[in-house]
Amino acid sequence: MERIKATLKNKSGEGHIDTAVKIIIAVVIGALLLGGFFLLFKGENGILKQLNNKVDDMVNMGGTVQVRQNDGKLEYSYDGESWKQSNVAGLASDAKVNYYVTVETRDTMVWLISCSSSVGARLYISTDGLNWTPSYSDKSSLYLAKSGSGARISCGDGRAYTTQDGINWTMTSTKRY
Q1: pLDDT, position 167
Q2: Higher pLDDT, 76 or 24
Q3: How far apart are CA 139 and CA 15, in angstroms?
């Protein structure tokens, strides 16, 4: 009982305020650490993922690129596991990749994509899978397909073209509707 009275009479606050301050400091430091870990590991936008992507791009600049269509968008990868969305110059924001074909010759590989958007359809050609050049277009549709060792396109207005190398095209139909 005497001990309780002595504690109640003690007005120094020793042992209570400093403990509260230590707890507050520990909580703040913990929150900062948790926030830092969150920034490091938060998926595709995390610092480690971004760093990994930058290192992959630097290391694989001379490597073989792979291209694929995914949910109407065009993607590329150096390793077949980590895919990044391709930037196709001049492609409308509402464009969708409809058809995707590769044409291989003895010396080169050419990627061809047919895209449609609210402004029409267009064929894009790439010799490296990263840089795309706009080619034939049509106001309504453009069908792209593999044809033997080459490719062919059919436009909505009746025009048709074929290629054996993906670069040089021959008109096979001039019919316009």
Answers
A1: 87
A2: 24
A3: 80
* pLDDT tens track for 35-85: 888 877 776 677 777 777 666 655 554 556 778 777 777 888 877 777 888
pLDDT value at position 31? 93
Answer whether 101's CB lies under 8 Å from 154's CB: no
Contact 146, 132 (CB under 8 A): no
Angle between helices 47-59 and 17-41 (to 10 degrees): 30
Q: What is the pLDDT of residue 138?
A: 84
What's the CA gap between 156 and 175, in Å, rounded?
A: 10
- 86 and 76 in contact (C-beta within 8 Å)? yes
Q: What are phi and psi of 111, to 5 degrees?
A: -100, 135
Strand partners, 100: 113
Instruction: Supply 97's token pair.
Output: 């990749």
Please tell me the distance from the alpha carbon of residue 47 to that of residue 50, in angstroms, as a whole number: 5
